[in-house]
Amino acid sequence: MFIGEYQHTLDNKGRIIIPSKFRTELGEEFVMTKGLDNCLFVYPKTEWSILEEKLKQLPLTNRDARAFVRFFFSGASECELDKQGRVLIPPNLREHSKLEKEVVIIGVSTRIEIWSKEEWDSYNNDDSLSYDSIAEKMAELGI
User: Fold this and answer.
1) What is the pLDDT of residues 67-125, one digit of tens each?
2) What is the pTM of this model?
3) Structural domain count, the chain
4) Residue 9 maps to which CATH number?
5) Whose CA is closest to 108, among 122, 123, 118?
6) Up-side HSE of residue 39: CA atoms within 13 Å toward CB?
7) Which residue range is the domain that position 26 belongs to?
């Protein structure tokens, strides 16, 4: 399980260090793709396979389903760690997530999210995302 928040810096080649606590569970090879809210989603191969199977079940006749699958898979890239625990973030994914220098890496249970620090700070300061109001909505879902 991935948990926690870590601050890192993107180097001039577009690489970031993956926190050591995440590396073992992530594995040497994993999948990175466009995420929601202007971040990147990073999945271990096992979790990617589970998600891929679920997405294959979506009806091809549903326009939103087709659009989501296109968005998700077209941005996907198989990645691997180098000996220093770094990963190269492809240019299209850096552009999607507005990554320039300061980066925040967070653990979100079965995946890792990579955010530009600026986007992460903006997301956390969004008044419509009050922790209390979100918790109330989660209670409605049985959590």
Assistant:
1) 999 999 999 999 999 999 999 999 999 999 999 999 999 999 999 999 999 999 999 88
2) 0.92
3) 1
4) 3.40.1550.20
5) 123
6) 22
7) 2-140
DSSP 6-49: EEEE--TTSEEEPPHHHHHHH-SEEEEEE-STT-EEEEEHHHHH
The encoded tokens of residue 1 equal: 């399980």
Nearest to 54 by CA among 42, 68, 44, 38: 68
Q: Which of 123, 110, 103, 6 is nearest to 131 (CA)?
A: 123
For the chain, give percent helix, strand, coil, nearest 5: 40, 30, 30
Distance, CA of 46 to CA of 27 (rounded, Å): 10
| Token digits of residue 79 | 């990645």
Query: Number of helices (H) and strands (E), helices first, in the chain?
Result: 6, 8
